[in-house]
């Protein structure tokens, strides 16, 4: 667990992309005083001041977004100022500091831990209240070099911020996500204590660019704070523009205290170095240095090479040395071959984007991670799944986490934060300022390949009267033409500011693009047939001139098509709760890879959050078990994310007759040239498992000439089914010339015999009990599954074959499929999910209350024990390790009655086999019937019928 009492949380440098050696970390305990929103408004009126600064008139991004009124409104330490000419070229202090009495030291009644939002548990204050937070810190620090400038730097403060040093107003900043810095040299005492006071006001204005803070509000200081010493002539920012031929151009902004000559040196290794003499004028200067890296090592998720080194500026004022880095890579969109559409490219080659949506939320730090190690692990946990891409949702990411994306190698699509009110001038101005700060700050990260300006038209609908949520296409008319024009200007401004990346105007779920580099769309559709139909509709309607997915008479050009949100969390009435993802995920990815036009997807989402339980991982970081290895040995999520892949162009499961022949259509999908021009082998096997032993029915190999990008048909396979009831699995392995598996896939069959049961198997349906004592007890999956909560028993009267069919009864084996039963709140009458939960704003939701919840298999197990009694005598006991649900629950998915509701989908148990002792069989030979009782303790009991679970068995007595 994270230690909330650490004296110096987050001790590492916050900006490894722009790091000076002379710095002091100011994280840790600060004095704190809070004024609730109502009190702060009364205080403002009494003082005759306006707490909220006057509305800033929006000039529109085509004229350059407005800067804030800070002394250094944006942290441009890692990017040059590329806004259009009318935007201010340098930061200036406000004309007049707010006339405001600062609290005395004794008035700070609490302590708070920086850099955590005052609403978060890790702050030590932990109250989610809007209002004003006052921070106070006393520090003594002297820069290493005499005569250095002293800068006070803030990662981010939400929302209106004023700073005083030793009672002198140092500057202001507006915006919740942008970094900023203040030159405090004039008021800093190098040989004495210094008092820093920060006033942060967060009133949740409808015009504020807040993003999706409902999961956990970022209030006040929520990113690191530090002091930094600099020479009086220093490099304010550097922007690296790279090309895959090794050409690098560094564009630098330099602040000089006086005119004179300076030497600029760039040292990123023996093959990546340059130096240039500069003639500087007083004030702001721009310098461009161009050099070529010999035999460049390109950055990609597979090989994330960084050129790490230093910039050094030597002048009469001294030396300014900054550690930084860049990656050589190019992002683009190109058409290949005869195609009329484009694919997304990385370094000139197509790249298929296997991605996930990251809310970037921590349960105790909210949007602030407690440690650097946890940020690194976030990227690692994505990569271990075979993902190569992440969409950071409705917020700019912390620079330190972006560093790990650069270092470990994962592509990033970074969203701008939205506002939730009307798109009026005040909201537009606030948004434009934050967008500018984000692009400037994060420009140099090679991992970022795309900027997303808006999401699902949130904040873009006028007088909507309600939060704009997924699927509200009926409100499209509220997205006014003038707002669409503003969004177009935002897109074009971002393209002008950063032509090296793809820019998306709006990541839509209601078909409302206006102009974009990426033609993406969102969907949440459950059910194989419906999903297949939806994806085919989108692909068929994607071509130049089509109005599909666009609004206001705008039409598609040739922008690459990709999905930017998908999953089954919202495709189910009331939300999917915490349920199996594996079944839906596999057939969805198969459908994506069927289509040559599709360049990738964003699965919702990386981790569970406060009201969505559809992550690869739970919020605490524990992994979910997708169960693929239990269907096809060796298979994992990574196989579904392979660049070279065999598509099964079939439903996830088909019902077929025993002994019949089935045709399986296959496709090849390649988005890597790693194996082009070579021969790969498709190894296949048809296996079934009915009695707990895996049997291979038939197998074969097909050699495939593997050449060219995209999707192409393969010869279908024809396989013969087992001659008895079984769940059959056709497993596929794509193998290279060395025998190493490139990727795996499978499809399944419910094989039904002529009688539907085994010869000499006396059986009863699971719901046909003679007695039951569980409270509660209920059925699921159309009556094919029987559940008992807590302790109790189910009893069955089973009629055995008569003497005419089986003259001598010599053996009886009891067989059934069973799991434990985790009793959830929604199983108890009267407990269900509240209807008025505001999902979009992160209202807390207990998964147990959701009627669709049956917890997906994970690290947390729920065990039980079942005793087997025949005619009152205990003959066996089985430990049931869990109450699982994943891809192994094939029959529980195949026989779901509704695509819009889940009935313990994907759940399954263990095959239990108990031999009846001979002395009891002697009695049964005469009686030709038995009473079977299955008795469980407090862990409960689930019993699966023929059409549920993993095995096609009912409650059976196998007689010999």
Characterise the protein shown here.
With 960 residues, the protein is mainly beta. Helices cover 12% and strands 33% of the residues. Strand 36 and strand 37 (695-706) form a beta hairpin. The relative contact order is 0.09. The model is unreliable at 1-5 and 42-95 (pLDDT under 50).
Provide the fold topology.
Elements: E1 19-20, E2 23-25, E3 28-36, H1 37-47, E4 110-114, E5 131-139, E6 149-154, E7 157-158, E8 160-165, E9 168-174, E10 180-183, E11 194-202, E12 220-221, E13 225-230, E14 234-242, E15 247-256, E16 260-267, E17 273-280, E18 283-292, E19 307-315, E20 318-326, E21 331-334, E22 343-346, E23 349-350, E24 353-358, H2 372-383, E25 389-392, H3 399-408, E26 411-415, H4 425-442, E27 448-452, H5 481-497, E28 502-504, E29 519-523, H6 528-540, E30 561-566, H7 582-593, E31 600-603, H8 628-631, H9 637-640, E32 644-648, E33 653-657, E34 661-664, E35 666-670, E36 678-688, E37 695-706, E38 710-713, E39 717-720, E40 726-735, E41 741-752, E42 761-764, E43 771-772, E44 777-780, E45 785-788, E46 792-799, E47 812-819, E48 864-870, E49 873-880, H10 890-894, E50 910-915, H11 918-927, E51 929-936, E52 941-944, E53 955-959
Parallel strand pairs: 24-25, 24-31, 25-26, 26-27, 27-28, 29-30, 33-41
Antiparallel strand pairs: 1-20, 2-13, 3-4, 3-5, 5-11, 6-10, 6-13, 7-12, 8-9, 8-11, 14-15, 15-18, 16-17, 16-19, 19-20, 21-22, 22-23, 32-35, 34-39, 35-38, 36-37, 36-40, 40-41, 42-53, 43-46, 44-45, 45-52, 46-51, 47-50, 47-52, 47-53, 48-49, 48-51
């Amino acid at each position: 667990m994270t230690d909330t009492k650490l004296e110096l949380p987050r001790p590492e440098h916050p900006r490894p992309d722009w790091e000076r050696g002379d710095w002091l970390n100011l994280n840790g305990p600060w004095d704190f005083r809070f004024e609730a929103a109502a009190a702060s408004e009364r205080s403002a009126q009494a003082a005759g001041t306006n707490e909220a600064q006057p509305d800033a008139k929006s000039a529109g991004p085509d004229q350059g977004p407005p800067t804030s009124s800070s002394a250094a409104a944006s942290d441009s330490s890692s990017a040059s100022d590329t806004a259009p000419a009318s935007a201010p070229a340098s930061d200036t202090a406000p004309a007049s500091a707010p006339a405001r009495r600062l609290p005395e030291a004794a008035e700070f009644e609490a302590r708070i831990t920086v850099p955590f939002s005052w609403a978060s548990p890790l702050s030590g204050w932990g109250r989610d209240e809007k209002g004003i937070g006052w921070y106070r810190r006393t520090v003594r620090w002297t820069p290493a070099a005499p005569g250095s400038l002293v800068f006070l730097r803030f990662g981010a403060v939400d929302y209106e911020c004023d700073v005083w040093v030793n009672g002198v107003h140092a500057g202001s900043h507006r915006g919740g996500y942008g970094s900023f810095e203040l030159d405090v040299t004039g008021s800093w005492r190098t040989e004495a204590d210094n008092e820093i006071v920060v006033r942060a006001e967060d009133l949740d204005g409808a015009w504020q660019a807040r993003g999706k803070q409902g999961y956990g509000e970022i209030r006040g200081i929520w990113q690191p704070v530090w002091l930094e010493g600099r020479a009086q002539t220093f490099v304010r920012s550097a922007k690296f523009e790279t090309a895959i031929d090794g050409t690098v151009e560094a564009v630098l902004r330099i602040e000089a205290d006086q005119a004179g000559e300076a030497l600029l040196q760039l040292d990123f290794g023996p093959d990546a170095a340059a130096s240039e003499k500069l003639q500087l004028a007083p004030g702001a200067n721009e310098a461009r240095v161009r050099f070529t890296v010999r035999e460049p090592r390109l950055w990609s998720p597979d090989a994330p090479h960084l050129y790490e080194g230093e910039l050094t500026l030597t002048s009469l004022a001294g030396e300014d040395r900054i550690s930084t880095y860049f990656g050589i890579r190019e992002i683009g969109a190109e058409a290949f071959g005869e195609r009329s559409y484009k694919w997304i490219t990385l370094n000139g080659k197509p790249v298929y984007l296997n991605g996930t949506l990251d809310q970037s939320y921590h349960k105790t730090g909210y949007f602030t991670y407690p440690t650097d190690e946890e940020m690194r692990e976030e990227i690692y946990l994505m990569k271990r799944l075979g993902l190569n891409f992440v969409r950071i949702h409705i917020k700019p990411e912390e620079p330190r986490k972006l560093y790990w994306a650069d270092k470990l190698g994962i592509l990033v699509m970074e969203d701008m934060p939205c506002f939730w009110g009307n798109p009026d001038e005040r909201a537009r101005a606030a948004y434009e300022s934050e967008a500018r700060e984000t692009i400037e700050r994060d420009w140099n990260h090679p991992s970022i390949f795309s900027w997303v300006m808006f999401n699902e038209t949130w904040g873009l609908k006028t007088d909507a009267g309600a939060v704009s949520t997924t699927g509200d296409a009926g409100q499209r008319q509220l997205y006014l033409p003038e707002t669409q024009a503003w969004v177009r200007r935002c897109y074009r401004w971002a393209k002008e500011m950063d032509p090296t990346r793809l820019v998306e105007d709006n990541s839509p779920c209601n078909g409302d693009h206006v102009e974009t580099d990426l033609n993406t769309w969102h969907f949440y559709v459950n059910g194989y047939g419906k999903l297949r139909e939806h994806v085919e509709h989108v692909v068929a309607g994607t071509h130049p001139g089509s109005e599909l997915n666009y609004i206001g008479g705008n039409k598609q050009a040739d922008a690459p098509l990709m999905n930017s949100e998908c999953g089954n969390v919202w495709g189910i009435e009331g939300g999917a709760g915490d349920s199996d993802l594996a079944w839906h995920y596999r057939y969805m990815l198969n459908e994506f890879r069927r289509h040559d036009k599709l360049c990738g997807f964003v699965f919702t989402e990386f981790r569970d959050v406060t009201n969505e339980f559809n992550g690869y991982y739970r919020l605490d970081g524990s992994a979910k078990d997708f169960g693929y290895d239990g269907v096809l040995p060796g298979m994992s999520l990574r196989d579904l994310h392979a660049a070279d892949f065999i598509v099964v162009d079939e439903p996830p499961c088909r019902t077929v007759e025993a002994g019949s022949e089935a045709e399986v259509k296959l496709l090849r999908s390649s988005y890597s040239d790693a194996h082009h021009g070579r021969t790969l082998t498709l190894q296949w096997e048809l296996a079934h498992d009915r009695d707990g032993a895996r049997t291979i029915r038939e197998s074969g190999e097909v050699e495939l000439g593997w050449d060219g990008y995209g999707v192409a048909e393969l010869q279908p396979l024809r396989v013969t089914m087992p001659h008895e009831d079984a769940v059959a699995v056709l497993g596929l392995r794509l193998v290279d010339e060395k025998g190493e598996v490139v990727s795996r896939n499978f499809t399944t069959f419910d094989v039904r015999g002529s009688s539907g049961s085994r010869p000499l198997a006396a059986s009863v349906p699971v719901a046909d009990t003679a007695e039951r004592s569980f409270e509660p007890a209920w059925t699921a999956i159309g009556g094919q599954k029987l559940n008992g909560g807590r302790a109790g028993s189910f009893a069955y009267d089973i009629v055995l074959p008569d003497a005419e069919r089986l003259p001598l009864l010599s053996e009886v084996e009891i067989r059934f499929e069973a799991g434990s039963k985790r009793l959830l709140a929604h199983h108890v009458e009267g407990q269900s999910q509240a209807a008025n939960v505001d999902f979009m704003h992160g209202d807390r939701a207990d998964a147990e209350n959701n009627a669709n919840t049956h917890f997906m298999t994970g690290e947390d197990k729920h065990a039980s024990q079942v005793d087997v009694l025949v005619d009152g005598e205990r003959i066996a006991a089985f430990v049931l390790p869990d109450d699982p649900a994943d891809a192994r629950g094939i029959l529980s998915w195949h026989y779901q009655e509704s695509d819009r509701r889940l009935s313990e989908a994907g759940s399954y148990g263990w095959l239990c086999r108990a031999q009846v002792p001979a002395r009891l069989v002697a009695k049964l030979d005469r009686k030709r019937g038995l009473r079977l009782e299955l008795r469980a303790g407090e862990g409960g009991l689930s019993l699966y019928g023929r059409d549920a679970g993993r095995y096609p068995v009912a409650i059976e007595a196998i007689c010999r």
